[in-house]
Amino acid sequence: MGTDIAPPGYPGNQDENESEQQNTGQTSLDDYADETGPTNRQGKTINERRERLEQILEEEMEVVESHQFGSFTRGTMVGPLSEDSDTDVMFVLSREKHGKWERGENGSSNCLRAVKRALEKRYPNSKVKIDRNVVSVQFSDFTVDVAPAFKDGTGGYKIPDTYSEGRSWVRTNPRGYKQRFEAVDNARGGKLQKVARVAKKLRENRNVPVSSYHMEVMAYDHVHNHPNKDASTEELVEGFVEELPRRISRGTRDPVNGDRLDSNMDRSNRKEAIRKAKAARRQMRDARAHRQTGDNEEANEKYGDALGEDID
Q1: Does 1.10.12 match the CATH number of domain 176-307?
Q2: Of 24, 41, 171, 237, whose CB count within 10 A is highest?
Q3: What is the distance between the alpha carbons of residues 306 and 283, in angstroms, rounded to a whole number?
Q4: Residue 167: CB partners within 8 Å, gap ≥ 6?
Q5: For 38-172, which CATH class?
Q6: Any idea which GO molecular function terms this record carries (predicted)?
Q7: Tens of pLDDT along 48-90?
Q8: What is the reported pTM?
Q9: At what angle do helices 191-206 and 267-292 cross, to 10 degrees?
Q10: 8 Å CB contact between 242 and 97
């Protein structure tokens, strides 16, 4: 998995001092999606920070491989980055050296605590905490989630699961999802990345109480199953927002392992998420109506209302 500064074709890879590129033939939502990613400079910082974290952990334990994974490598991370933005790194540990954490009672919690201690020593001025499967290091510009792992023998990995009182490890296969995501994105001419980033900006701007990954997988499901293989970005985004209340209501499963992504979503949060999705849907319907009559200026305004941010 990636040690690249950013995945190929990441539309957000523009230095702040680059001149604005022409987007001839692109529509408003295409342009908006292209502007939502992190800059090339931020991508370089993400990669450098992963390398520094690897150096720190290798001094404390035996690391056999490391990976950048998550939304950054799939091209679905949204900017501008802040301390609440997170990027994911996985450090695969030697089973021979550290197998006691995999086998022992409370081993997953003990593993996370060991990683936390190692990082706290090097980052005394940063907030370092255990968050379910990872150790989060909150820097001033963004947060890095560090996932210790063991290979599971099937091409995937096992990471700590502290929801089980520190006694277990949960399987994950970020490569599997990335491969599926890229296959759909390539088949749709890069539009899956665009729809996923727009979906995440809707979530962020309107404070919809679902996780970023949950929102992305709902976008993945929509684009993957859309009957029109040549659908425009507008058509895909409009259709996604139209379906969003129903998708939140019925739940979403991980494309690789089939686990429910909303299993920890309580009733009040689900109700609130559906309410906000319905409000966005009403405004998106208005945008679609104006677009169909050729009133692009008003359509852009309604797109902005739906997404919670101005669309030029």
Answers
A1: no
A2: 237
A3: 5
A4: 105, 106, 107, 108
A5: alpha beta
A6: nucleotidyltransferase activity
A7: 888 899 999 999 999 999 888 888 889 898 887 777 778 889 9
A8: 0.80
A9: 120
A10: no
